[in-house]
Design brief:
single chain, about 425 residues, Rossmann fold, Dihydrodipicolinate Reductase, domain 2, Alpha-Beta Plaits, 6-stranded parallel sheet, 17 strands, about 35% helix, binds L-homoserine
Length: about 425
């Protein structure tokens, strides 16, 4: 049987999962590919830690050139994450004529424009299923069976760490810091967990999904990115009172040549399937012009699911190699000249419903002042609650609005925050309750 040799850079959590999977399911993979897929070399700076896996002698090396420059290796898996040296390694692998599989969403979201043309010039594939949604095969679906569609929406819960934290805060009233620590111990979090918590990891993934779905380059820095560190148990409680859950959502929408790409905590109705996506699970919901709405659900982080996505990409490449095909599809699924550069819609122009929370002194007339300011900016109130009664003290007042423009919401809140009766900065959370 023919043998396809691969090399792995990065022997951390996911790398270990990949090595284990390739060993455990070697026979199955050979039956599916029609060739043995063999892990020839693994490069990592740490060659001493016991990862609980036995490797043939000589597999592990601290010299990355043993992977990148070995002419027998036809596929390089990059799992070190981050920008450098990952970018240099990926480009060197490509220049050496090797196909690349990576889980590195940060690298592709910021430097895809350098990597994709390099791969095109060499006629090699760059596959990155594991970069979005852990083990969930969304990218294969966009590039493959959903390719006939014009997408209008892609919306998802894309960060297992944040979803795990929000779920435990919602279900148990757990403390943010304690839950984050557990997520790190379980191997869900990024090396720098602020990337998870502040929404950056989700934005990296959204950038890739928007490019894949809408065929446009995305200026990563133009994606509005907010994380979950400002979400309080009070907001979670009020959301529940109004029939919503708070999730960190990645939202991509296309209307004509207008594209929205934003990441922020979002209230969604409890009866939406997305509201039931809990713990480390991710879900991605697409709307295509022919397929309609379709949702993918599965484990979005962790060693085994992510390894499954990485090895799935290796199998795709191995099958092409066996068929004598070097590359059937560009990384974004469009021919290069067809990829456009559409500007992202400014956040001020976004329209939707909003949850507003004010801390106001409990005094006659305070509501009239707040609602007057909202009216001035054309913001109509759908419902309202005031919790507690404490004359002369601060109490929370929560207002749900009808459709409003974000710049009006911001302007109204800025004005309201100047009122003497307002004791804390007012907060807002966007609501998504009108999915096609
Ligand atoms: N840190 C990421 C998460 C891992 O929590 O979802 C998968 O990209």
């Amino acid at each position: 049987m023919k043998e396809i040799k691969i090399g792995l850079i990065g022997f951390g959590t996911i790398g270990t999962g990949v090595a284990k999977l390739l060993q455990a399911n070697a026979g199955l993979i050979a039956d599916k590919v029609g060739a043995m897929v063999t892990l020839k070399k693994i490069a990592d700076l740490d060659v001493t830690t016991d990862r609980g896996i036995e490797l043939p002698p000589g597999t592990l090396t601290s010299n990355v050139a043993d992977v990148l420059d070995d002419p027998e290796i036809s596929v390089v898996i990059e799992l070190i994450g981050g920008y450098e040296p990952a970018k240099s390694f990926v480009l060197r692998a490509i220049n050496n004529g090797k196909h690349v599989v990576t889980a590195n969403k940060a690298l592709l979201a910021l430097h895809g424009e350098e990597i994709y043309p390099a791969a095109a010039a060499k006629g090699v594939q760059v596959l990155f299923e594991a970069a979005v949604g852990g083990g969930i095969p969304v990218i294969s679906a966009i590039l493959g069976n959903m390719a006939a569609n014009n997408f209008t929406t892609v919306l998802g819960i894309l960060n297992g760490t944040c979803n795990y934290i929000l779920t435990r805060m919602t279900q148990e009233g757990a403390d943010f810091g304690d839950v984050l620590k557990t997520a790190q111990e379980l191997g869900y979090a990024e090396a720098d967990p602020t990337f998870d918590i502040e929404g950056v990891d989700t934005a990296h993934k959204l950038a890739l999904l928007v490019s894949l779905c809408f065929g446009t380059k995305v200026d990563f820095n133009a994606i509005h990115t907010e994380g979950i560190s400002s979400i309080s148990s009070a907001d979670i409680g009020f959301a529940r009172d109004f029939g919503y859950k708070i999730k960190l959502l990645a939202i991509g929408k296309r209307t004509g040549d207008t594209v929205e790409a934003r990441v922020h905590p979002t209230m969604i109705p409890v009866n939406y399937p997305l509201a039931d996506v809990d713990g480390v699970f991710n879900a991605i919901r697409f709307t295509g012009d022919f397929i309609g709405p379709v949702m993918f659900y599965g484990r979005g982080a962790g060693m085994d699911p992510t390894a499954s996505a990485v090895v799935g990409d290796v199998i795709e490449i191995a099958r092409n190699i066996i068929a004598g095909v070097s590359r059937r599809c560009a990384p974004l699924g469009y021919r290069d000249e067809a990829v456009t550069t559409l500007a992202l819609k400014p956040m001020g122009e976004i329209e939707g419903k909003y949850y507003l929370r004010f801390s106001a002194v409990d005094k006659p007339g305070v509501l009239a002042k707040i609602s007057g300011a909202l009216g001035k900016y054309d913001i109509s109130i759908e419902s309202m609650i005031q919790k507690g009664r404490s004359a002369g003290e601060s109490v929370p007042i929560v207002i749900m609005t009808h459709e409003a423009r974000e710049k009006d919401i911001r302007a109204a809140l800025e004005e309201i925050d100047t009122f003497e009766l307002i004791s804390e900065k007012s907060r807002f959370i966007r609501i998504e309750d009108n999915l096609e």
